[in-house]
From TrEMBL:
Family membership: Belongs to the TonB-dependent receptor family.
Location of the motif TonB C-terminal box: 672-689
Gene3D superfamilies: TonB-dependent receptor, beta-barrel domain (2.40.170.20), TonB-dependent receptor, plug domain (2.170.130.10)
Cellular localization per UniProt: Cell outer membrane
Name under which the protein is recorded: Hemoglobin
Originating organism: Thalassospira profundimaris
Membrane topology: Multi-pass membrane protein
Example GO BP: siderophore transmembrane transport
Gene Ontology cellular component annotations, sorted alphabetically: cell outer membrane
Chain ranges of the TonB-dependent receptor plug domain: 70-174
Signal sequence range: 1-25
Sample GO molecular function, one term: heme transmembrane transporter activity
Domain TonB-dependent receptor-like beta-barrel: 262-662
Sections of the chain in a coiled coil: none
Length: 689
């Protein structure tokens, strides 16, 4: 179903709608200022959640390492909080991020194969952090997300170049996953508790069970233990056909504890382990049929273990020290045995790292200057084996060490004008068995300025540079790829460098149409110029070799908007994005540039009964600007959702239900030949004790 006209119309009206509504908001606020209390002045107002997964009154830490309200940040940031995760009954990354502007999930519907794409950039160009630890696994066709949605407290997405504060490689953006701790679940005065949850999905007869136990053994300690098991069958697409080898079976566990050393200092330890076991094609993201040569059937086990030790110091009375430090280790193992002959392939990535920062605040003639100094060092070590023997084409044995330091300054020049300026230095050392080693360094500056023209409108401009070292597989993979095609190593690959301009406006207004309501909006236009963009060439039938090469200049530009409105009873949201990307030397389209899309939602809360009802629509236009292959048809999906906080009837009980793809539409995402799930009835119930 092509949605070209409707999608373009909605995209064109977003900015006008935002500006017009915000202007009206100012008039309404002035008219009612003598009669209605300004809810924005109350710090404990509920967070506004729109269906496009924006919690614009939530707090972000990815922007500047300081706790800052999302709506006041001169950047494109979205936060999916715990309430929205429950509403979506998320089982994978696609469920969590669907509808978010500028963000897509490629790789198809298999959860362990999914890859995030932010503003047309994917792979190592998107930094992924789990409780601060970098999740760096990235290998062709295999995916990089191995996590349990049941333990997530929030998912924060920063769109745009973010290397200065978030680490080398963040050309496209950052996805930061934060897990729950005991304090998130314990009621005031409660010392010990538990929660059990069961969920069911009809499209694949999936059953998810989770159990948590948590408590405060002493006044200054807390601990949480969680175990999740999910088992699914093959799902049905919209045409009623079972999609083979889409069944799954995983178990995940987490132990998270904390010690409040004193009123300012806290020490935390998080240990997680994820184990998945299923049968699928060797290239599960391609959607091509299973065959005996290039896409053979394998029994795959995916395991990921991580440990994060964190320390924080936050004292409102100390302007000199506001610090966070984390040390972490993560191991990801992908183990595959070919069904036909038992051939055994193993891939292992070990990441160890240390990350820290401190913010000092100074009073300059009554104006605050916040200076953040930080740095990180981490090492990736990867190893690939086939029947116990190292093979360079599979996952070349290689090692990369990266360290970086940065300083960032945020200054409130006036009550209306805020300016931020920072700079980062990165250096990397990359080596592999039998190959030439490489090292390089770069300086990445950033700058932003925002001006609050009125109480409801804050335009901003920002500029940021980012730096990404070539991935170990990009540089060193060599040997057999598929019949008639071989990988060719390229140790001369240059690091990618991005320069991103962004022009945007934040809108926020309370008491817009009625007392106590709130309107929030963020609109932005960006242009990202990338030097030495790394692209894989020749990975098609008829090519004799596959090689990663530098594209001298590439450009990605686009428009994004996200709006939310909430009265406490009625809520609505809209998100839209339009991106374009090309090789500026040849005019050729870049790969991974998503189609234009619009997400619309709304709902109603029956507060007296603890019930919420709502729906969403995701409209995706036809994709015609592609690097190779045929254009991809557009599609539309419509969902319904409901929740019931049954505490008045049975204390601790919460029920969520929904119908995804209610019209049973048969569709595919841009990069995948495998069809997405059809109509899916979902229900889950949780009980706290």
């Amino acid at each position: 179903m092509a949605l070209s006209n409707s999608a373009r119309l909605l995209l064109a009206t977003v900015s006008t709608f935002a500006l017009g509504t915000a202007a009206y908001a100012q008039e309404a606020a002035n008219a009612s200022s003598n009669d209605v209390k300004d809810v924005s002045a109350t710090s404990n107002q509920p967070v506004l959640i729109a269906e496009n997964s924006i919690a614009l009154d939530a707090i972000t830490i990815t922007a500047d390492k300081r706790q800052t309200s999302v709506i006041d940040v001169p950047a494109s940031i979205s936060v999916v909080d715990e309430e929205e995760l429950e509403r979506r009954q998320a089982s994978d990354l696609s469920d969590i991020l669907r509808g978010m502007p500028g963000v897509e999930i490629y790789g198809g519907p298999r959860s362990t194969v999914q890859e995030p794409v932010i503003r047309g950039l994917t792979g190592d160009r998107v930094v992924v952090r789990v409780d601060g630890a970098r999740a760096n696994m990235s290998v062709g066709h295999k995916g990089r997300f191995f996590f349990d949605p049941e333990v997530l407290k929030s998912v924060e997405v920063y769109r745009g170049a973010a290397s200065t504060m978030q680490g080398t490689g963040a050309l496209g953006g950052v996805i930061a996953l934060t897990t729950k701790d005991a304090n998130d679940l314990l009621d005031p005065g409660q010392k010990i508790g538990a929660r059990v949850k069961v969920g069911y999905a009809s499209v694949d007869h999936g059953l998810t069970t989770n159990g948590m136990a948590y408590g405060r053994p002493t006044d200054n300690t807390d601990i949480l233990v969680s175990v999740t098991r999910e088992s699914t069958g093959n799902f049905e697409s919209g045409d009623g056909i079972k999609q083979q080898y889409t069944d799954d079976d995983y178990i995940s566990g987490m132990v998270k504890g904390g010690i409040d050393i004193n009123d300012a200092s806290r020490l935390t330890l998080t240990v997680q382990r994820y184990s998945d076991d299923h049968q699928l094609p060797a290239a599960p993201d391609s959607g091509s049929a299973v065959n005996s040569t290039s896409n053979y059937l394998v029994n795959r086990e995916s395991e990921e273990s991580s440990l994060v030790l964190g320390y924080s110091y936050h004292d409102s009375g100390n302007d000199w020290i506001d610090a966070n430090v984390s040390a972490y280790g993560m191991r990801t193992d992908l183990d595959e045995k070919r069904v036909s002959d038992g051939r055994h392939d193993e891939r292992t990535l070990d990441t160890i790292g240390l990350d820290g920062n401190n913010t000092s605040r100074f009073d300059l003639a009554g104006r605050e200057l916040a200076v953040t100094i930080g740095g990180e060092i981490y090492q990736d070590s990867q190893e690939g084996r086939r029947n116990g023997v190292a093979v360079s084409n599979l996952f070349p044995d290689a090692e990369m060490t990266i360290y970086g330091v940065y300083v960032d300054n945020a200054f409130a020049v006036t009550d209306a004008l805020d300016v931020t300026a920072g700079v980062r230095f990165d250096s990397y050392d990359l080596s592999a068995e039998g190959q030439r080693s490489r090292e390089d360094s770069a300086i990445s500056p950033r700058f932003s300025a925002s001006y609050r023209v009125t109480s409801w409108m804050q335009p901003y401009v920002s500029y940021a540079e980012a730096f990404r070292a070539p991935a170990m597989t990009e540089m060193y993979a060599s040997g057999y790829h598929f019949p008639g095609n071989n990988f060719v190593a390229n140790p001369d690959l240059e690091a990618e460098k991005a320069k991103t301009w962004e022009f945007g406006t934040n809108f926020k207004s309370d008491n817009l149409l009625t007392a106590g309501d709130a309107f929030r909006a963020k609109v932005a236009y960006f242009q990202n110029e990338i030097e030495d963009y790394i692209e894989q060439q020749g990975a098609t039938v008829g090519s004799s070799e596959t090689k990663s090469v530098n594209v001298p200049e590439a450009e990605i530009k686009g428009f994004e908007a996200e709006l939310s409105y909430d009265t406490g009873i009625v809520f609505a949201g809209l998100a839209a994005s339009r991106l374009r990307g090309e090789n500026t030397k040849t005019g050729a389209n870049l790969s991974d540039i998503p189609a234009d899309k619009v997400s619309v939602s709304g709902g109603y809360r029956f507060e007296d009964y603890g019930v919420e009802l709502g729906g969403r629509a995701n409209l995706v236009d036809r994709l015609t600007r592609i690097a190779s292959g045929s254009e991809v048809p557009g599609y539309a999906t419509f969902d319904l959702f409901a929740s019931w906080d049954a505490s008045e009837t049975l204390p601790g009980l919460r029920v969520n239900a929904g119908i995804d793809n209610i019209l049973d539409h048969n569709y595919q995402t841009a990069d995948n030949a495998l069809y997405e799930p059809g109509r899916n009835f979902k229900i889950s119930a949780s009980m706290k004790f």
